[in-house]
Design a protein that fits this description.
There is one protein chain. The protein has about 150 residues and is an alpha+beta fold. About 40% of the residues lie in helices and about 25% in strands. It has four helices and four strands; from the N terminus they run H-H-E-H-E-E-H-E. The longest helix has 26 residues.
Length: about 150
C-alpha cells in the first residue's frame, strides 16, 4: 500500500516536468537566419529591438489649446523652417515640438535658433521619434591617425 502511494506521488510530481519540457522544446529557438556580415547582423538586431521612439530630447515651442497649436504648426510648415513638426497631446494641453536629439547638448545648440523666433521655446526630455543619421559622402576613407605620445618623430 505504501509502495503504491509513493509511486502515485512520484508520478504526480513528475507531470509538470514532462509538460514543461515539451512546451519549451517546441517554442524555443536559438538560431537566427541572417546574413553573416556585421552590418546585416546589426540591422537585424536594431529592427528587432528598436521601437518607434527613444528617450531623448526635443524643443518645445508651444503648449496650449488645439487651435493655437494647429496655427503654429501651419506657420512653421508654411515658412519652410521645419517640416517635421510634431503636435503632441499631453493632458490638458497640446504641444508643438520640433527635433529629435540623443543628448541635451545637441538640443541646446538648436534651441538658440528657435528662441529667436519663439522666445518661450525650451528643451524637453521625452520620447522622441528616431531620426535618420546622414553621413557625409566626401570624407576620405582614412581620416584618423593614431600618434604615440612617446614617439621619436
Amino acid at each position: 500500500m505504501l509502495r503504491k502511494l509513493i509511486i502515485i506521488l512520484l508520478a504526480i510530481n513528475a507531470m509538470p516536468l514532462v509538460s514543461n519540457a515539451t512546451t519549451v522544446g517546441l517554442t524555443q529557438c536559438d538560431t537566427l537566419d541572417i546574413a553573416r556580415d556585421l552590418d546585416s547582423a546589426y540591422l537585424h538586431f536594431i529592427s528587432e529591438q528598436q521601437g518607434e521612439f527613444f528617450e531623448g530630447y526635443t524643443i518645445q515651442l508651444f503648449s496650449g489649446n488645439r487651435s493655437g497649436a494647429n496655427i503654429l504648426k501651419g506657420e512653421i510648415i508654411a515658412n519652410g523652417k521645419y517640416d517635421a513638426v510634431r503636435l503632441v497631446y499631453l493632458a490638458p494641453n497640446f504641444k508643438i515640438q520640433v527635433g529629435s536629439y540623443p543628448d541635451i547638448g545637441s538640443a541646446q545648440r538648436d534651441l538658440g535658433e528657435w528662441k529667436a523666433l519663439y522666445p518661450d521655446a525650451f528643451v524637453v526630455k521625452t520620447n522622441v521619434p528616431w531620426y535618420p543619421i546622414v553621413l557625409p559622402q566626401d570624407v576620405p576613407a582614412d581620416t584618423t591617425k593614431a600618434y604615440d605620445v612617446h614617439s621619436p618623430e
